[in-house]
Amino acid sequence: MSDFVIFLYFYENIHGICRIHHVRLLIEFRFLKGLHKYMNVEQYIEQLESKGFQLGEDGKGFIFFGKEMTNAPDELVNAAIELTLKAKITFDGSFFISLLESMMSQELISRKEALQFAEEYKLLV
Known about the structure:
The protein is α+β, with helices and mostly antiparallel strands. It has 5 helices and 2 strands, in the order E-E-H-H-H-H-H.
């Protein structure tokens, strides 16, 4: 199980006094548990869907377009999907392609390197 923490900031206006509130939410990505082992992209998407997560046809289109455009290995594409879900909570196709292009420009090839990249660039809170 991997944990992901989200920090939300919001303003409260009570009797003309504005306060900033800081809320910490802990989200457990249980649907990603056990998906770290090597799978091709199709298997990874099927596994996500079997866990209840739906990418939709648009999401799948972005994934396969990004994979073809960057010529990225399956392990890196899967890592980019995982990081996109963790960073954006839902699948954001534009973010995914940008992330995948960035990882390929850094010549990353493994999930471990992708996670280090995400940590280095503070993609995850």
